[in-house]
Structures are given as structure tokens and as C-alpha cells.
Amino acid sequence: NAGVTQTPKFQVLKTGQSMTLQCAQDMNHEYMSWYRQDPGMGLRLIHYSVGAGITDQGEVPNGYNVSRSTTEDFPLRLLSAAPSQTSVYFCASSYPIGTSEETQYFGPGTRLLVL
Amino acid sequence: AQKVTQAQTEISVVEKEDVTLDCVYETRDTTYYLFWYKQPPSGELVFLIRRNSFDEQNEISGRYSWNFQKSTSSFNFTITASQVVDSAVYFCALKGDSSYKLIFGSGTRLLVRP
Asked: Are A88 and B100 within 8 A, CB to CB?
């Protein structure tokens, strides 16, 4: 198992550019989510998905879009990047919600710099 | 509302000292789950432990131990005989049964000096 993979590892964007952060998992997890990590603020939930075709907003969804067409993939789209979106982005997945095995496992992160 | 507070922003100890990282949580859910994650300097997030609200047994894993106390809404993490490799940021997190969201504390940076 590769676990949770994220690409790219690092990206520099100019203000107004768009890009997609890729996330994939090979554990057949139903639940996937995106977080951003900023200094002194821990991790904050951006969007999450409880299964293919189902997504919902987290704490800080503005400026980001997601879709979930397959169980394996959960891409995060920045439509028009802003300097405030400079952050480290983590994707996570977990076993079914509400089960005793429900624990979120994180990808290695994508470091994004918006100039 | 759900909230996790890690009041210790940074802790510095000398190798072989014991150190306790505090975590206080708030939730209205009667069933909830508490987690600790480690983030070493390399940046990845490593799962350490999960504790269900209906299981108040403390847990020990090698040099790590966790003290869950519902009466004080705390889930503290102790490292015994700390080592330099324990240097990392440690996050406490909470998930209530009524929500899909995992709520993180702001983290405690632990520096273990040789």
C-alpha cells in the first residue's frame, strides 16, 4: 500500500493563477479530507467527502473547490490563488465513519507559496 | 461547538527528562474520539493514538503514555525518558460523533536537547 499520496510536494503560484492539488489513496477509504496548516493555528479543515459523489465544506472552504468522482481520488482546486492561501496542505483518508477503526491517515503534504 | 486547547506552545527539556503535553477539549457529544499526532521536522503527520470517550483506561506504549480524564476533559500525553528523536510538534485532535470533522489543537512544539 502506498497509503495517501499527494502531488506536487511544492508549488509556487502567482496571484490569480489556478491549480489543482492531487490526492490519492489506495486503502479503499470512504472518507477523505483536505486541511491547511498555518503557523500557530494547527490544522483547519477545508473540505471533506464521505464517499464518491459526496462532498461538504469544512471550516475554511472559501477559495477552494473539490470533487470526488472515484473512491481513490480527491483533488483540491484553487480557482484564483491569493497570497492568503500560502500554506501547507494535507490530504487525509480514513476507514468508515463511526467504526472503531475510524482514524485519519495523512499524506506527506503540499507546500504552496502564492506570490 | 467543539474545541481543543493545547496551552503549551513550546516545551524544551533535556534528554532523559519526562515531559507531559497537555490537551483540554470541549464537546457536547456524549460519544467522541480523541487523537494525538506527531509532526517531526520532516513535516509528515504521524498517528500516535486514538481514544474513544467510553474507554477511560490509560494507555502505555513504550515510553509514551496517555492519561484520559473525562472529569476534567483532558487527554494528556507523557513521554518518559525523552530522546532527541522525540523533538517534534505534537497535535491533539477531537472528533465528535455528531460531526465528520476532526478538530485540531494548535500544537505543542517539543524540543529535546542532548
From this structure: no
